[in-house]
Please model this.
Amino acid sequence: MNRRLIGVLGGTFDPIHRGHTELAHDAVRALGLDQLRCVPAGNPAHRPMPVASATDRLALVRLAFADQPGCVIDDVEIRQPGPSWTILTLERLRAACPDAALVLIVGADAFLGLPGWHRWQELISLAHIAVANRPGSDLDILAMPAPLKDVFQTHHVTDVSALKRHTAGCIVSFTMTPCTVSATQIRSALRQGQPIHGLVATSVENYIRRHHLYT
Ligand code: ATP
Model:
C-alpha cells in the first residue's frame, strides 16, 4: 500500500539553524516524505527551558522553512500548556491521520537520549523512527543503553521502502549532509558578539538581530 509518509521533526529550535534545515531537507529526500511537520516544543520536559520565548522560536522556524515546499509548521506543543511530550503529539497526529505512516525524525544524539523521554517505549507503536547520522554522534549500537538496543534490534530495517508499507514500527537510519552547527554554539556566539553568518538563514539572523535575542 502506498501510504502518505509524514515526517515529524521536533526540537526546541533555540534557535533554528542550518543543521535543522539540512536534516529536514535530507530526510524528505532520503525517506521520500510527502510532508514534513516541524513541531517546536513549548516547554520541553526533558531538558532546560529554552532561552528564547516560544513566540520568537516559532517565528524563527516559520522564517527558516518559508521556502521549503511540503513543510508544515505545527504549533500544537506551543499552544498547549504543560510539558511538551512527543508521545502526545504523535497520538494526536495518529488520531488525525489513521492511515498515514508517521516518521519521527531525530539526530543520532537525540536517539541515544530516547530512554529519557516520557513513555518512550510507546513511540514506536505510533510512528517509525528515522535516525540521521549527525557528525560526532553517528548511530553506534555499542553506545545504546540496553533497553534502547533491544528496541533498535527488534525494529531496525535497512530498506526505507518499508516505511510506506506500515503505519509505524520501523527504525531506519539515513546519512545526512554533515553539518556541525548546534543551537548551543549559536547562542554562545551571539552572547560573545561573534558572527553567526552562514550558521542560520539570513531571514533568521535578521530576526534575531532585530529582536536582540540571545545577547
Ligand atoms: P542545543 O545545542 O540547544 O542542544 P540542537 O542544535 O541540538 O540544540 P535541538 O532543537 O535540540 O537542536 O534539536 C532538534 C533535533 O535536530 C534533534 O533531533 C537533533 O539531533 C537534531 N539536530 C540538531 N542539530 C543538528 C545538526 N547539526 N545535524 C543533524 N541533526 C541536528
Q: What stands out?
A: The radius of gyration is 17 Å. The mean pLDDT is 94.
